[in-house]
Amino acid sequence: MLEFIKDARNANPRLTFGGAILTKHDGRQKICKIVAGAVKDYYGCVLESSIPPTNSIVKAQAAGNTILQYDGDDPVSHDFKQMALEIMAITGLAAKEPVLA
After folding, report:
1. What are the tens digits of pLDDT across the range 38-55?
2. How far is CA 99 from CA 2, 75, 79, 82, 84, in A?
């Protein structure tokens, strides 16, 4: 990951790091809290939104779909939508149409 960030910055020096994304993250578990803290200490910024561990993503992948295509009402679909909104806010982008429909 660090090598990728370094290469990206070399390719575009104006590029800034918006934040780390926590996946398979269960904030109730002590180890996940420790990892989240370590990631924040190392990278400086971690998105508020995170993606929890779920079988829904595995099922969607097996069906050849995104989780939003597979089950847009699944709680993890909502998590991805929230993360998209957070990334849009960080980057200053605006949605062309409603994201949380």
Report:
1. 999 988 899 999 999 999
2. 31, 15, 12, 9, 8
Question: Is residue 67 classed exposed, middle or buried when 0-12, 13-18 and 19+ CB atoms within 10 A define those classes?
Answer: buried
CA torsion angle 88 41 28 90 (round to 10): -10
Is 0.90 topped by the overall pTM? no
Q: Are residues 67 and 86 in the same domain?
A: yes
Domain assignment of residue 98, given as a range: 54-101
What residues contact residue 84 under an 8 Å CB cut-off, 6+ apart? 99
